Amino acid sequence: MKKATVVGASGGMGYALVQELVNREIQVVAFARGEEKLTQLYADKELVSIKTGDAENIDQLIHASKDSDIIFHAMNLPYENWKQKLEVITKNIIVAAEENNAKLAVVDIIYAYGRSGGSLLTEEVNKKPHTRKGKLRLEMDRLLKESSVPTLICHFPDFYGPNATNTYIHFTLEQLLKKNKAGFVGPGNIIREFIYTKDGARMMVDLSLHEETYDQNWNIPGCPPLTGIDIDQLLREVLGEEKGLYFISKPMFALYSLFAGKGMREAVEMQYINSEPTILSGSKLETFLGNVSATPFEQGIAETIAFMKA
To answer: What is the distance in angstroms between the CA of the first residue and the CA of the last residue of the chain?
Structure first.
């Protein structure tokens, strides 16, 4: 791979992918709508070309990804826009890849799996989404697989990391940097899985460099699962003992959403992920790549906080 386009380069996972590609001395086109944010993130990166545009505009997308070997789709739409825009943007990215004879590497989440039933989720699990958003993600998966474009689809758990602002962990850290108590979405006693965006980008780029990984789904697991209580203790170690969490249950979240914006109301149906273990199996990935290391949670949190403060 000599050149790649990252769609959604101003978001958390997009930012991590651009950084990872640049570290490997690969030319990158950073594509997103906000020129100011792109300039802030990449103005000092010689290997990065900034292209502003809207993924709903097929011509802009085709132009931005010209001569790219791989298009990384890391765009993160607000929940309230999924129904109207997710299919349109997916189809546009497929056409852009076809027009430029490029491969696709797609950042996906775990919603299409549906409930885990407490079992580890492998790539072979029959996806049975029970939420509207899970069904939309499964439809996106179908569109990608029915296209003629070689496509690598990576399923990730919840993100955290530098510039990953639209995440539960960012919500918690933002509060803790201002005051001593912060809300953590989910019960304190349920194990949860989070992935540091730098780790996710590294593993996704590793997979993208192998021809045989395409036209498959890959689970990308995070750091060892932690309960909310574990996270509370780790945050105290990083930020000081005076800091602490209170836990936001699903009923509390639903109540808050009545007075919040539409985005939070849209998130209510996804709270099943926070109330039961929803953990990805990484056995397929480890078989292919070998031992897959993860950044310790406390180190990732410290680096994320340093980025937020800067």
So the answer is: 32
